[in-house]
From TrEMBL:
InterPro entries reported in the protein's UniProt record: ECM_Assembly_Org (IPR050525), FN3_dom (IPR003961), FN3_sf (IPR036116), Ig-like_fold (IPR013783), VWF_A (IPR002035), vWFA_dom_sf (IPR036465)
Record-annotated Fibronectin type-III domain positions: 166-255
Protein name: Collagen alpha-1(XX) chain
Gene Ontology cellular component annotations, sorted alphabetically: collagen trimer
SMART domains xref list: FN3, VWA
Lineage per the UniProt record: Eukaryota, Metazoa, Chordata, Craniata, Vertebrata
Length: 296
């Protein structure tokens, strides 16, 4: 299976989509690069919540491996999301290219780091990792399978979280030009924390708030006016993550001055008057000579 991410993660294909090597290689040839921000924590949460579930092709008896490929430092908390995966017995390999943060790669990856962390200076050099990484991955799968066969316990991802672990009924209210209020109904089992992620739908730097699991409301402030925002609420447990709640809403536009009037004309002056714009603290007045005069 494969997902791409920037501000918003996107599943390219599930674990069960293709059944032959040639099909996967063909899909890779047709893959289009998704540019944008580096929101690694949200991407890892997406993999756990969407890609490693039975309805996406994940088999309970199979070993779970995640290979993270990134060319930059994460703009959110990648370590918290990675720890959720590792707590569930999912092994993470971290591969950095160009501007990746090696300290962050080591935080995210599973032990032993000498087998799970790789860093190269540019994309063409990734080909030099293929042979070694393939051998390491196959060896790790065999080792983990052997441990399972000898009676060791392996944690499985919950098959269905449902209302037991997932909040419901996200409501967005009290929307202004720069703020909004979120409320939701908590799951039957209170989470340890909530991760609230929000960002403009047309691009922009995602922001994140972490709340105590006993809280089920939040006011988002310092937003941009007249902008559509995507909002996600994720419940975080010690060994699982519940399904996220998602919502979309737009902030109000800033109010404008109205009824512009011109009076008291003279050979070198004019007087302007208008109805005030609510909330405005200053006005910027520009004037230029028509039709193509320079601005004064």
């Amino acid at each position: 299976g494969l997902s791409q991410y920037s501000s918003d993660p996107r599943t390219e294909w599930d674990l069960s989509t293709y059944s032959t090597r040639d099909q996967v290689l063909e899909a890779m040839k047709n893959l289009r690069y998704k540019g944008g921000n580096t929101f690694t924590g949200l991407a890892l949460t997406h993999v756990l919540e969407k890609n490693l579930k039975p309805d996406a092709g994940a088999r309970l008896e199979a070993e779970k491996l995640v290979i993270l490929l990134t060319d930059g430092k994460s703009q959110d908390d990648a370590n918290l999301a990675a720890q959720m995966l590792k707590n569930l017995g999912i092994e993470i390999f971290a591969i950095g290219v160009k501007n990746a943060d090696e300290a962050e790669l080591k935080q995210v990856a599973s032990e032993p780091l000498e087998l799970t962390v790789y860093n190269v200076l540019d994309f063409p050099l990734l080909s030099s990792l293929v042979g070694r990484l393939t051998r390491v991955l196959c060896t790790r799968i065999k080792e983990k399978s052997n441990k399972e066969n000898t009676g060791s316990t392996v944690k499985d991802i919950p098959v269905s979280t449902g209302p037991q672990l997932s909040p419901t009924d996200l409501k967005i209210s009290a929307v202004t030009s720069k703020s909004m209020h979120l409320t939701w109904s908590p799951p039957l089992r209170p989470p340890k924390k909530y991760r609230i992620v929000y960002y403009p739908s047309k691009g922009g730097i995602p922001k994140e708030v972490v709340l105590d699991g006993a809280v089920s409301s939040l006011r988002l402030s310092n937003l941009t006016s007249d902008t559509e925002y995507l909002v996600s609420v994720f419940p975080v447990y010690d060994t699982a993550v519940g399904d996220g709640l998602r919502g979309v809403t737009s902030t109000l536009p800033l109010s404008s001055p109205r009824s512009l009037r011109v009076s008291e004309l003279s050979h070198n002056s004019i007087r302007l008057s208008w109805k005030a714009a609510q909330g405005a603290t200053q006005y910027l007045v520009l004037c230029s000579a028509a039709p193509n005069g320079a601005e004064d």
